[in-house]
Design brief:
mainly beta; single chain
Length: 269
């Protein structure tokens, strides 16, 4: 995503320290409760600037271009017991792109505690958000919950990608419960949830089969029709948006198949 009339990235305050909640899970390692936030605004010339960029390690934010932020992991995690949250506010008429510099590795905690990652995003009238991080990898033994809450104005634009890899090479994945709730103009747009890490579900040919990755892309704007390809599908939603879903044997195949689905939505070749 590019912005017209680019301006230098603003000088922002140093990252705020994460809140640490001590728990008797591992000597020398305390469960983390971290909160990070991004907010945009329009300047006097109508350009997008970052009004807020507050980090909470391990969620560390870096402005890499006007209207573009990268997530940088500055500590291992999430680990079992961690409670991490990212809040995104895209002001009316502004544009924001959020990426990450590497995949997120979810690790187990020694006491079997659940880790939680919550992302809340609000996109105002005429605003645009592209949220396209690298995949989340579920290491063996992890217990993880992912929650996304997306609130869009009626004419907001969004591209939201989610990719999950079933464990590191040669290992079974930990368990993950993912929940995605999107509303547009105050009405429901998408309610979706799924579970990874249940052997009976993971190995079923009716669910994941031999796939090792699952992913989706939510794109505003409706595809003309349902399209099904090899390992991917495009589903127009009741609202003005489309969901691309895909499975892959590895992260490269998954990304390629999601790309095929997006091409079917936008007409790109």
């Amino acid at each position: 995503m590019s912005l017209s009339n680019p301006v230098p990235a603003p000088v922002l305050p140093a990252p705020a320290p994460a809140e640490s909640v001590p728990r008797p899970e591992r000597a020398g390692r305390r469960a983390m409760r971290a909160r990070a936030a991004i907010a945009t605004r329009r300047d006097a010339a109508g350009r997008t600037v970052l009004a807020t960029m507050r980090s909470g390690p391990p969620l560390t934010l870096r402005a890499t271009a006007p209207g573009r932020v990268h997530l940088v992991s500055t500590a291992a995690g999430p680990l079992g017991g961690d409670d991490l949250a990212l809040d995104i506010e895209v002001a009316p008429g502004t544009e924001l792109e959020v990426r990450s510099v590497a995949s997120t590795l979810v690790l187990p905690g020694p006491a079997g505690a659940e880790s939680l990652m919550t992302i809340t995003a609000r996109v105002g009238a005429g605003a645009s958000l592209s949220f396209v991080p690298e995949p989340t990898v579920l290491a063996a033994g992890c217990l993880h919950r992912m929650v996304v809450r997306l609130d869009l104005a009626e004419d907001a634009r969004v591209r939201w990608r989610e990719e999950i890899v079933f464990g590191r090479y040669g290992e079974r994945p930990g368990r993950c419960h993912s929940r995605f709730d999107a509303v547009l103009g105050g009405g429901p747009l998408l309610r979706q949830e799924f579970v990874v890490g249940d052997a009976e579900i993971d190995d079923s040919p009716a669910v994941y089969g031999d796939a090792r990755c699952v992913g989706s892309v939510l794109v505003t704007g409706r595809a003309p029709e349902t399209v099904v390809g090899q390992g991917w599908a495009v589903l127009p939603l009741a609202g003005p948006a489309t969901l691309v879903s895909a499975l892959g044997r590895d992260a490269v195949e998954l990304r390629r198949r999601l790309g095929h689905g997006e091409e079917a939505v936008t007409g790109r070749r």
